[in-house]
Amino acid sequence: MKGHAPTLLAGCLALVACAGELREPGPAAPPASAVATVTPAACEPALAPAPAPALTPRERRRRERGPVDGNFVFSHFSAGVFSTILIQPATYFVATRVGETGHGLGPAIGALVLGAFVPPILNYTVQWAVGRSVAPGRDRFWPGFLVNQVSHLGIFIGAVVGGADFRNLGHATAIVLGEAFLNSGLATMTAELTRRPRTPAAATATTVIVPVLEFKF
Q1: Would the keyword Signal turn up in this protein's UniProt record (predicted)?
Q2: What is the pLDDT of residue 105?
Q3: By the 8 A CB rule, do 190 and 131 touch?
Q4: Cys-Cys link to 111, which of 22, 99, 147, 189 (CB 3.0-4.6 A)?
Q5: Cβ atoms < 10 Å from Cβ of 212
Q6: Which bin fits 66, alpha (ψ -120 to 50), beta or left (φ > 0)?
Q7: Distance in angstroms (rounded) separating the CA atoms of residues 78 and 131
Q8: Cβ within 8 Å of residue 190, ≥6 positions away
Q9: Which residues of the chain have pLDDT under 50?
Q10: Buried b (16+ CB within 10 A) or exposed e, 23-43
Q11: Distance in angstroms between the alpha carbons of the first and the last residue of the chain
Q12: What is the pLDDT of residue 144?
């Protein structure tokens, strides 16, 4: 038995080692969340975004001009109404006085020229100045002025041909109030529709200055 003891000891150790290998668990299965799931939609190519609808020239101009400025419209129109109520009677009074002085066609022609061309110049200059103070550089001068001038000429010529008496309070009041609202409204509408396009804010460049120190030994 003593001669076989080493052999028995080696056999027992071999059996223990085999039993340990049998009990060793295999590699754990990956969790279900770690398994990549490939869907058919993932294999499809990404669709390109739909192109934006083309804008008409009118819509493009409207977008470039920007939204309507209510403060500008109200101030521009109010200035035209009040300036017409104040300036128009004074202009007609001066034109009447000029027409009554002297003899011949000279005074009459001078009175007609004053009544036909001076009020729109004064009235719309006030309108334009007030609108410019509210929104600098928003509207152009000439479109609104020309509309005001044409509308005034139509009313003035119609009043003269129709025999209106500018020295009559009733006639003068009707003419002045009509021009105050009609001419000022048309001029404001024209100034708003022909306003300048918005200028995009320029990107401000940032300059970074890095000081460099030089040492000499």
Answers
A1: yes
A2: 86
A3: no
A4: 99
A5: 5
A6: left
A7: 10
A8: 143, 144, 147
A9: 22, 24, 32-36, 38, 40-44, 201-208, 210-213, 215, 217
A10: eeeeeeeeeeeeeeeeeeeee
A11: 93
A12: 95
